[in-house]
Target: DUF3150 domain-containing protein
Amino acid sequence: MDSGMHPEQPAQRLRLTNAMTLFLIDYHIWSGRKKLRPEDLRMGAALPPDGLVSLGSKKVCDPDALRVFHRKRRHIERLLLAVGTRFLSGYLVPNTHAAAVLAEATAITAEARTAAEDFLADYDRHIDAWCAAYPTWEQAIRNAIDPVEVVRGQLRFRVLALRIETAEMVAEDTLAEDLAAVGETIFSEVEQVARSLEQSFLGRDGLSQRAVGTFRRIYDKLNALSFADYRIDPVVRALRDWLRRLPQSGPIGGSLFLEGWALMRLVGDAQAMARHGAGILALSELMPDAQALAAGQRAAVADADAEADTDASTDGGADPGDAHRPDADTALAMDPHAAEPVTDFDDLFDEPSAAAPVTATAPSGPPEPIGVQDFWF
Model:
């Protein structure tokens, strides 16, 4: 392996710090809560409802009115994680992407500030509506309300882009230690993103383009950060080779489907990515073998027959329409185009853009669906 990639060496630390920008999200959002006091409990005959109090605090404003600010913050987090990684209390983003990321984050922050002005303009109306929703507890709510100018001071929105440097006179320089963990952090983030991809394979003989979009976003993230750790590039190359051979539309079947299964197991396990990148684990070791595939086929058929027998024995007391309505698991196996579960990236990212043109490789023939209960390696 390339010894120059080892993070404890000064050259590696210099390369990472010079090639990356540290982004900090400085969003201070008013909580809309106040501490629950003993006198609050004496003002009503009954305990306050769950919608009003929680964890020793009472809500003095409708939480729905404040959710817009949390959405804006999460939007920026998704933006930074698309091509960056968590580091210290912020996010490291390659300099090649920093300008575009900063421009979009600035636009989102401007939207948050506009939303804050709208909220403050309607502050009294929000309070009145909340009191009307809990009339028994109105006095307790109004006793805890802050003036609008106090609330204004608790709403702050900005994103900072910083350069990382270590001061010359420090008791202990821990930057190298922090940078050494960047690769592990990246693999862990990708593992979280890929966690639900398995559901796109189980019980199916084709992979949807929606799931392929998740693979593409994982590739984009790893490709942007490949210089941060020598073990990332082999994973990037494996993904790139597979993605280039996929058709632009329709489900992915045949040998490409099985390759996708192996890649799903790779990116869904941080340790597997680290081992593959270090040359310890070959991608072929993650492929389902012929015996396991045959066992999965037999198990899937047996499960389908058992479910059919169970449905037939209970049809007498069921709604007549239920006889034509397959259960969720059977429908999933029958319909390879069924809606995919929303992956973590749908919470982390916006909808994927259209895939770049690629050269399709005709599959040798679709395999039987992989059984849900099999392939636990």
